[in-house]
Design brief:
Length: about 220
């Protein structure tokens, strides 16, 4: 999958807000990138690419930042997460972010834990805000195809403490590029698997305020 992830590797300085045209070479490449995965404990369906703006699909881009290669930079305002690469490049992923500005984590953290098919437990704040929706999951939901964290989760800690924010997959890929979550950063399942493979525990994550300075 790493080989195909650079299929649009030029200086992607413009944002294509169109949908993919069926049958074209780019559409075929993305269909392979976001195809069904049957090598996991649970099946991961192919992504319906007609529901996602092409600018939020994975690609390598030019990226100016003072962060070191290997750092993840999340720009909630632009709805992107960048994995900083060498020589002014980054792997860019479309994301969904908190539905209200106050829900979003800001600043620096580290990935202290990685999990495949993670268990999901709503935070106490989520249960307080929407008890009818989240109260029944207070004891947690095991990993699986209905779990909102999807097939992978990267857990953000600051000063040794869990922030309760994660980068994770989603059961709703059409929400990528929107403000919809309770503050976590969600990626297409195929993208969180790709990112998960690339980063070890201890990876630095920087979450910019909306309107941050990341440039691509």
């Amino acid at each position: 999958m790493a080989a195909s992830s650079g299929l649009l590797a030029g200086c992607a300085t413009t944002q294509d807000t169109s949908r993919l045209q069926p049958g074209g070479p780019v559409a075929r490449e993305y269909a392979a990138m976001y195809g069904a995965i049957d090598t996991e404990p649970f099946p991961i369906p192919a992504v319906d690419l007609s529901t996602i703006d092409t600018r939020f699909l994975r690609r390598e881009v030019a990226f100016r930042t003072t962060e070191q290669p290997g750092t993840i930079v999340v720009d909630p305002g632009a709805r992107y997460a960048y994995l900083v690469l060498e020589r002014g490049r980054a792997m860019r992923y479309g994301v969904g972010v908190g539905k209200e500005e106050g829900f979003n984590f800001r600043g620096s953290a580290v990935i202290a834990r990685k999990a495949e098919w993670p268990r999901w437990t709503p935070t106490p704040n989520m249960i307080r805000r929407e008890p009818e929706r989240y109260g029944k999951y207070a004891g947690g939901m095991p990993g699986g195809p209905e779990n909102p964290l999807g097939p992978r989760a990267l857990y953000l800690y600051r000063d040794g403490q869990d922030t309760y924010y994660r980068l994770h997959g989603t059961v709703e890929p059409a929400t990528i590029g929107t403000m919809v979550s309770s503050g976590c950063v969600r990626l297409i399942n195929q993208d969180i698997i790709d990112l998960y493979r690339r980063v070890p525990t201890g990876t630095k994550v920087v979450v910019l305020p909306s309107g941050g300075e990341a440039t691509s």
